[in-house]
């Protein structure tokens, strides 16, 4: 691939079929319908999940395959965590059960504390992304979309960092910096004086105070981000400390 080739040979539009495929309907067999809108959340929270059957049985519907996957990922949890996972899976598609958005919002309205205490962080991120399309208020949808971009980009660049051979806690060395220009004419980021981190994260915290459904979830996730020592923000903080010592 030369410098003048396109990363995506037929343009960004060529990604649309892949995007659409991932959002196709989760089909189901009789008896695999989503729980009704008035389901008892407290009861589900007391029912432990069964063990995942391995190998996975053949001929399962898409919903059954998703449930099988979730049983492995959420092992040790309860049926309420499974319901949340299934709701997120349905609502990330173009077509879903009519009552799914209302059930998802009701779950977060009534069991927010339980969800924050019991769901793995990855599912909290998936939840806030789901609000980007299914939040009732514009404030919730707008904030959720911003968080979607933040966490999606974090996933991409942290995945690339894995190929550096460095641990996520290990910052790059200042002296190894390559001074090639950034892509698309962007200005460089100053390790010592750059305020991009503040411009990126502070508005999310600020806007969480005006988002009725996802405010606490947003602040919870940003607090987890701040206390995680495996992020680019922590590595830049360490690089900043090292640079200041050599001034």
Give your account of this protein's structure.
The structure is a single chain. With 247 residues, the chain is mostly helical. Helices cover 53% and strands 0% of the residues. The chain is globular, with a radius of gyration of 21 Å.
Write the layout of secondary structure elements.
Elements: H1 16-21, H2 41-44, H3 62-73, H4 79-91, H5 100-110, H6 112-118, H7 121-134, H8 138-161, H9 196-208, H10 215-227, H11 232-245
Helix pairs in contact: 3-4, 4-5, 4-7, 7-8, 9-10
Write out key terms for the chains shown.
mainly alpha, single chain, 0% strand, 247 residues
What's the quick description here?
This protein has helices at residues 16-21, 41-44, 62-73, 79-91, 100-110, 112-118, 121-134, 138-161, 196-208, 215-227, 232-245. The chain is mainly α and 247 residues long.
Q: What composes the largest sheet?
A: none
N- to C-terminal separation?
41 Å
Q: Radius of gyration from the CA trace?
A: 21 Å
Our count of helices gives: 11
- Percentage of residues in helical conformation: 40-55%
Structural class: mainly alpha
Overall average pLDDT: 94
Task: Give the ordered list of helices and strands.
Answer: HHHHHHHHHHH
**What is the general shape?**
globular
Q: Estimate the strand proportion.
A: under 5%
